[in-house]
Amino acid sequence: MVHLRYFTDCDEAIRARVLEWVRTDEFISRIGMPDHELKHVPGAETRTGRVHNWVIFVDEQPVGLISAQIQDQPRSHSPLNRELDDPADYPLLGTVTYIDRQHRSRGYASAAKHAISEHVAAAGVQTFGCIVAGDNPQSLRSISRAGYERVHTEKVDGKPDKLYFRRRR
Q1: What is the pLDDT of residue 99?
Q2: Which band of pLDDT confidence, cut at 50, 70 and 90, is reported for residue 133?
Q3: CA-to-CA distance for 41 and 51, rounded, in angstroms?
Q4: Which of 24, 66, 94, 123 is 20 to 30 Å from the Cα of 37, by its Cα?
Q5: What's the pTM?
Q6: Is Transferase a UniProt keyword of this protein (predicted)?
Q7: What is the DSSP string of 12-57?
Q8: Number of Cβ atoms within 10 Å of the Cβ of 83
Q9: DSSP 3-state assignment of 80?
Q10: Which residues are CB-contacts of 71 (< 8 A; sequence separation ≥ 6)?
Q11: Where are the domains of the chain?
């Protein structure tokens, strides 16, 4: 149904389209990832983990983006650490997913989460994690279908709660 291609491997037209998504007010408020993060070479080490950025394709049409970081041990400032304190949960692959408005509610996010778990970059990963805004019912359904369980709720003043999810292998 879906296939993943690294952002850095996409042609210029696809990269420009994805950058349009990343620069929208919705993307910035929901995900907040600066566009320069997309330019990392797959597997690049950063202070927060090894980075992977995939464009989600359906029939050679880009429909979304998944940015992932693989962490070998807990990060001290992550609220998820309170719930994932078992060393057996690491390495952990955390994701943020964005589906273009025109392509939502078709199961692409769930399918992409499954594709990531089968990707060679996820070899050795014990746990998959993600964060979803509490007012995003489409994403909450997608996460549920993908087999994730809610493990933490972070209250945010003036914004929707951040809901933390995980799925163990």
Answers
A1: 94
A2: confident
A3: 8
A4: 123
A5: 0.86
A6: yes
A7: HHHHHHHHHHHTSHHHHHHT---GGGGGSPTTEEETTEEEEEEEEE
A8: 16
A9: helix
A10: 48, 49, 90, 91, 92, 93, 94
A11: 3-168
